[in-house]
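Entry 14. Ran structure prediction on the chain below.
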Amino acid sequence: MAQSNDSILITPGSGATVATHNPGDSKEYQVVMMAGERGHIWGSADAFIVETTNTANVAASRTTRFDLFNASGSGVVLELSGIYIIPTLTAVTGVGLTWELIKTSAVGTGGTTLTPRALDSDNASLPSQVTARTSPTGGATTNHLWLSINTSSEETLPYGSLSSNINHIAFALSPDIQNITLREGQGIKIDQTTSSSVGSTNIRAVFSVK
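Output, structure tokens:
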């Protein structure tokens, strides 16, 4: 992408420098950078991805499969821009599965700790209060249901091959709608609510730090 090629002063001699660009029609146009409601230039907020390994589905009435929490004292706000629920493509006689994306008021305990990875190696490290895990065995206290999500473990259905590109909170990509926001003392968990041990699934979350 071309960068701006010139600049002007708002107040000649003392004002701030404003970038301009000439696209080839002999006119200079002011360059505008979009910013979010928290003042970050669009696309500049530190972002992270965290993903479980393929984990066997569970024959139980409800099983928490994923937990992300922003504990008190972190000094940051998390904004979710993506949740992906991805079945393995191993040949099985699959079934429909229902999941719930739930807001939580306590961190999950037990399970296996996951390490979120920065999308840019220059990002600041996450504070220790931001944690993620797969299959927590305790904690993760429910605050309220955010979304119900339907998937399938049948690998021959289109969902199987397309699932890694299906963002279940795609509305977060709209500039007119707030992202799911996790302030200090808030988190999310993803529960498998269909009792089925057929197949396995991995879960991916993408979030930014503000």
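The radius of gyration is 21 Å. Will compare against last week's run tomorrow.
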